């Protein structure tokens, strides 16, 4: 039982760390929570058995790192919005070009 939680904790902690450094850092929250809960379960099991596995420390370190990176990215990464006037002007030009192209097309009405 304890080994299952250790393996699950490591896998989710590593997945959370990988997701935290990618642009999908918002998705790292779910593996962070799962890894943290697995770490707590391992902690309670090891206290009952009076053992001190190092795996708990490694899981919590990975959780803290990935949580820190996720919080950092959510606070300091702001999506850059371009100049909306230029985008609107391009849209109008594309619309005018499309109208001109459609006017130039000859349609046979002899169908």
TrEMBL record:
Q: Which UniProt keywords apply?
A: Membrane, Transmembrane, Transmembrane helix
The membrane-spanning stretches of this chain are 30-46, 58-76
- Protein name, per record: FUSC family protein
